[in-house]
Amino acid sequence: MFYDEVKVSFKAGKGGDGCFSFRRAKYEPKGGPDGGNGGRGGNVYIIGDENVADLTDYRFKPGWAADNGEPGRGSDQHGAGGEDLVLRLPVGTVLVDRESEEPIAEVLAHGERILILEGGVGGKGNTVFKSSTNQAPREFTLGKVGEEGEFRLVIKTIADVGLIGFPNAGKSTLINMLTNAHPKTGAYPFTTIFPTVGVMEYPEQYQRITLADIPGLIEGASENRGLGHRFLKHVERCKVLLIMVDMQGTDGREPIGDYKSLLGELKLYKASLSRKPILVAANKMDEPAAEENLKQFEKKCLHKVYPISCVSDEGFKALGQALLKAVLCVREAESSV
Asked: Exposed site from 48, 205, 252, 261, fewest CB < 10 Å?
């Protein structure tokens, strides 16, 4: 099971208490104060890790806490600080406050480390309060409580190209053939139930791009039908969108109708998605009715159409080059900002 959204509770460590102590030694019945300070509580950090695939670890263990600081001791011994809690998350994870529903932080790169909760300050021992007018202080302070919070962890896949379409359009087969990823394929809808990211290599041009296979959408996905929100959120960070349409019109579907429905769902979910560079892959061109459907489709389609067949490899080279060109244009525009 792939977990891309979980509820969690994080807590930073409590600071150690300060110590109330006086030095006691032979022939020194009235030694001065020697109470040490308490250690600071451990902080809570999140860090992006490409080797973490999903949020399974947090689904079955939702509560995490950093270590408390040690209390101070006599003989001017200060308590050790609590060990920090470092939580490794998939790259692209957003941390959302459950009370306000506001995003707190997000990890966008491997190794990116973000402080989310600070540990409590350690208490002061009575040595700190010694002065010329107070040579035997009995004051000391307790350690402060660390910060804590209730959060949601949400993965938003990071890829250059987001592959979207209705169930059984052939998306998983395409990503199988274009990249090094191997999602499950089958002759039935909803074979893919979680996103898969593959890498397309262009060795002659010394380039590579990533392609994400997004689970099939249904009409009403923008209203969260068929877990629509959980699927659509994965295309938010994609630079380019590739809409895949079944040109055969399997199960009585109309290619132009599917195309318009997908564009509508993207716009309803988030208007900015429909403004991204969009390419259209007209799949199943090896089927009998595909040629005629393609002619009608191209007359009404607003975006560049690339006819392909996952059976005969038709059109793969042209589609691959078009995707690379679109991604490089977006990268160049982002770098110039």
From this structure: 252
